[in-house]
């Protein structure tokens, strides 16, 4: 299937347009006395975009791809002025007012450098825009690393929201997997032109998100030059072999390494090779291309020792405690990742006023998740295999200089397999058998058998988006559009292997057609219509929008929840009925009002809706399993519910932005989120007074806090950025299943607001850059986080737990650094670089703690201390070093 799919992609690599995400340049052209210059021309070099000033000297240039440009201003009788370093950001307006001097000599030209404001006082909500140049200077490798550096983001949680509440987009089109509402793509920093992270109120163009938007703009080829880049690096995890801890074992107290088997540095443990090439396509006029490929391999820091192989040895006797170690004792990686990634783009401008763009981005990955029980039988664990791709066509039509239409078509595919062997009838399943261990050997470590768990998930989504943007007046830039997303969603257990009776004795049997042992298919549809007005009146900015969303699960649910399986004698009959179509109207408003020349206050408010991950809607939604539920009993197994409503958040934000000096900017904002209709669990009574748990919209919460950001523009070689976030994230449950789990454990399941698991009250990020152009760059990032909540216990057993999340984990500090040194090789830029992540070798950063001590390192329970699980700790120090060669040349060079 993959070969056919790739063949169709490359056959489809025909003309396309890369400018679905673009910015706006506007301003006024005057003479030295401030008199408007009608007819003055404005041209953005490196593009075909430009404009002429109107009678009042005002000009507007739309749909400029994000990046840094040189802009040429000219008029007969006046000096031509070339402004360098003009930064254009997606969906934002860059204002550039220019005065031209009268020319004394023909051909006079003045070159100036644009003065980018230290803080953008025109923003109406909290948003971070990171350019390509800034991304290259940060010690990050992937998009998610960059996102987690932004103020208000904690391990993927935006301002206290649950995971899966963020809309991830590539070039303005969603790449979220509706199964869990998380991104289906892994993007390396080498393919990113710009990244926008919106934590505050976002425009009506964006939907299916409660907490934020991440829009990644991919690089494109230049029409006038060829560019190439080759990068390779290697590295390993480096934690001293003497770094150990005391634990209790069956033989007494002894010291064990926190991370066994990584005391030797192997520079090939982490390997990366990537290359890109872009420019105009030979022999095809008005066409540019970009190709990028990457091979990444990371053996990980969690190792196992192959003392045993999955196949049982006849000499092993569990009853007598005799274990034959039939392995080779090799050190084996148990949390590795091996990834192939690709990006291909073609752009064409052959047709008048039309730009066509085709792009394909995706990759294959093979990885394992660490399983501590299999640490001496590593060949028994499952392997995850994934394939993802987002490809499609964009068409941009510009009938007038102030109006353009965009049509985007995307095909998003995600395929996930988490099995030991793909075929459920594979003979090795039955030869190896179920996993077995013994308390007398390494406290129950698995010594034979394989993991019998099996799960697959496949998403096939089509996204069609049509938008029309027009500068209807000098003040109003209006954008309206439609979006439709039909899905084909498959997930489940592709055959269940379990213990059963075989000829009078116990053995492994396969079940393929029973509930819980099938892969089912669902075909939901969602869509939206939106209108957004950007008002730019002097320094006053207003963003006003309205979004209409709908969702149709195309599922069926019982007509009577009190007789869900239609199995209660004498009760009113219950039948399966179609789910209803869900509608939501979401208003958005943002205002930025200038109070000084370089300062403004802003306010934003919005309603946001999102359907829960469809995996939770449809999983375990076959209510016939309740036909045997006896009167008066309770089933704690949570039933799916395809008829759920969208979750809802109302966001309020108020802030102040100012340039305190020409080199220092400050940004302060306060925010409040009212969260309703979150996915949770309710217990439903039947006509026989039995109860069962099912998903419904019952959970709630709120988040409040503020952020303070200081940005010091480069003074000489030094620049510094600091942001501090304080927030309180409270709710009745951190996980949709929490209520059912508490009830099953005999605890109080009644809703009450407590700190959520990720309620990190204090977060401080400090970025320091020391650099000199084309010579060196040294970047350091410090992250300080206060402790997140946990539920402490007094002893063990029933009733030992204290109030939920009433304890606090320890605080922690992380430091990452990157150093680059620039050289010239045959006239080409050559960069040698080194990166160190977790410089201090911090072993803890808001992860697991023992409930009886609040420490990740020790517990009062001697049995739990015997074999500490290294996966509970933060990854140790990681060191990488590499080389990057890049260059460019004019496409017209002979």
Determine the mean pLDDT.
Answer: 89
CATH topology category name of the largest domain: Maltoporin, Chain A
Number of domains: 3
| Major sheet characteristics | 22 strands, antiparallel, barrel
The CATH top-level class label of the largest domain: Mainly Beta
Q: Please give the radius of gyration in angstroms.
A: 30 Å
Distance between the terminal alpha carbons, to the nearest Å? 43 Å
- For the secondary structure, the number of strands is 55
Quickly give the structural class: mainly beta
Would you identify the regions where 5 or more consecutive residues have pLDDT less than 50? 1-19
Helix content: under 10%
Our count of helices gives 6
Q: In CATH terms, what is the architecture of the largest domain?
A: Beta Barrel
Beta fraction:
over 45%
CATH superfamily of the largest domain: TonB-dependent receptor, beta-barrel domain
Shape by Cα distribution:
globular
Notes on the protein architecture:
With 894 residues, the protein is mainly beta. It contains six helices and 55 strands. The protein starts with a helix and ends with a strand.
């Amino acid at each position: 299937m993959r070969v056919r799919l790739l063949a169709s992609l490359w056959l489809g690599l025909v003309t396309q347009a890369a400018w679905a995400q673009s910015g706006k340049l506007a301003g006024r052209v005057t003479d030295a006395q401030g008199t408007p210059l009608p007819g003055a021309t404005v041209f953005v070099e490196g593009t075909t975009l430009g404009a002429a000033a109107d009678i009042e000297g005002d000009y507007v240039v739309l749909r400029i791809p994000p990046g840094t440009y040189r802009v040429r201003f000219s008029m007969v009788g006046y000096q031509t002025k070339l402004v360098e370093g003009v930064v254009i950001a997606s969906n934002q307006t860059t204002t550039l007012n220019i005065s031209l001097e009268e020319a004394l000599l023909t051909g006079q030209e003045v070159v100036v450098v644009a003065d980018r404001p230290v803080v953008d006082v025109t923003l109406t909500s909290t948003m971070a825009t990171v350019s390509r140049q800034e991304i290259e200077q940060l010690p990050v490798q992937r998009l998610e690393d960059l996102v987690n550096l932004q103020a208000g983001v904690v391990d993927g949680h935006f301002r206290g929201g649950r995971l899966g509440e963020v809309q991830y987009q590539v070039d303005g089109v969603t790449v979220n997997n509706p199964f869990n509402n998380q991104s289906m793509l892994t993007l390396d920093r080498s393919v990113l032109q710009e990244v926008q992270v919106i934590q505050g109120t976002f425009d009506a163009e964006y939907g299916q998100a409660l907490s934020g938007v991440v829009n990644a703009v991919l690089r494109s080829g230049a029409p006038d030059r060829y560019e190439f880049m080759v990068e390779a690096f290697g590295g390993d995890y480096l934690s001293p072999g003497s770094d150990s801890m005391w634990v209790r074992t069956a033989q007494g107290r002894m010291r064990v390494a926190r991370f066994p088997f990584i005391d030797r540095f192997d520079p090939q443990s982490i390997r990366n090779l990537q290359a890109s090439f872009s420019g105009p396509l030979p022999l095809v006029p008005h066409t540019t291309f970009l190709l990028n490929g990457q091979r990444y391999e990371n053996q990980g820091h969690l190792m196992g020792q192959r003392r045993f192989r999955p196949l049982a040895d006849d000499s092993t006797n569990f009853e007598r405690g005799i274990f034959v170690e039939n392995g080779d004792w090799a050190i084996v990686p148990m949390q590795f990742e091996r990834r192939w990634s690709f990006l291909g783009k073609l752009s064409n401008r052959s047709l008048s006023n039309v730009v066509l763009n085709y792009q394909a981005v995706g990759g294959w990955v093979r990885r394992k998740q660490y399983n501590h029980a299999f640490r001496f039988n590593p060949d028994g664990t499952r392997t995850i295999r994934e394939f993802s791709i987002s490809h499609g066509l964009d068409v941009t039509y510009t009938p007038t200089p102030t109006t353009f239409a965009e049509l985007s078509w995307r095909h998003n595919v995600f395929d996930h397999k988490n099995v030991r062997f793909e075929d459920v009838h594979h003979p090795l399943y039955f030869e190896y058998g179920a996993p077995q261990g013994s308390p007398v050997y390494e406290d129950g470590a698995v010594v034979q058998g394989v993991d019998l768990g099996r799960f697959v998930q496949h998403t096939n989504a089509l996204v069609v988006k049509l938008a029309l943007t027009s500068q209807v007046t000098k003040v109003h830039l209006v954008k309206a559009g439609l979006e439709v997303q039909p899905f084909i969603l498959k997930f489940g257990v592709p055959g269940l292997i379990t213990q059963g009776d075989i000829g009078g004795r116990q053995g492994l049997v396969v079940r393929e057609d029973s509930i819980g042992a099938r892969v089912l298919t669902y075909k939901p549809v969602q869509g939206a219509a939106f209108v957004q007005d950007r008002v730019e009146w002097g320094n006053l900015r207003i963003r006003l929008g309205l979004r209409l969303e709908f969702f149709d699960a195309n599922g069926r649910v019982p007509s009577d929840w009190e007789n869900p399986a239609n199995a209660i004698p004498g009760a009113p009959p219950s039948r399966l009925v179609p789910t209803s179509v869900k509608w939501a109207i979401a208003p958005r408003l943002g205002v930025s009002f200038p109070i000084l020349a370089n300062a403004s206050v802003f306010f934003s408010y919005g309603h946001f809706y999102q359907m829960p991950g469809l995996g939770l809607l449809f999983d375990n939604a076959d209510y016939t399993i309740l036909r045997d539920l006896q009167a008066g009993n309770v089933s704690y197994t949570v039933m799916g519910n395809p008829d759920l409503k969208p979750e809802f958040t109302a966001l309020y934000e108020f802030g102040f932005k100012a340039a305190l000096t020409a080199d220092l900017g400050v940004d302060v904002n306060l925010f409040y989120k009212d969260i309703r209709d979150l996915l949770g669990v309710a217990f439903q009574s039947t006509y026989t007074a039995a109860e069962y748990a099912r998903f419904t919209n019952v959970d709630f919460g709120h988040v409040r806090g503020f952020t303070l950001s200081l940005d010091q523009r480069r003074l000489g070689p030094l620049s510094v950025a600091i942001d501090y976030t304080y927030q309180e994230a409270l709710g009745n449950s951190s996980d949709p299943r929490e209520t059912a789990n508490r009830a099953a454990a005999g605890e109080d399941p009644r809703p009450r607001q407590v700190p959520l698991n990720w309620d990190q009250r204090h977060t401080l990020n400090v970025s320091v850059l020391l650099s000199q152009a084309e010579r060196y760059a040294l970047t350091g990032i410090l992250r300080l986080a206060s402790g997140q909540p946990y539920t402490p216990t007094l002893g063990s057993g029933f009733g030992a737990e204290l109030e939920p999340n009433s304890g606090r984990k320890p605080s922690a500090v992380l430091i990452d650094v990157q150093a680059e040194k620039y050289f010239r090789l045959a006239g080409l830029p050559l960069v040698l670089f080194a990166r160190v992540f977790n410089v201090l070798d911090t072993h803890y950063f808001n992860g697991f703690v023992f409930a009886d001590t609040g420490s990740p390192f020790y517990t009062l329970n001697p049995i739990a201390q015997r074999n500490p699980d290294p996966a509970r700790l933060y990854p140790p120090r990681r060191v990488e070093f590499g080389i990057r060669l890049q260059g460019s040349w004019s496409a017209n060079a002979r």
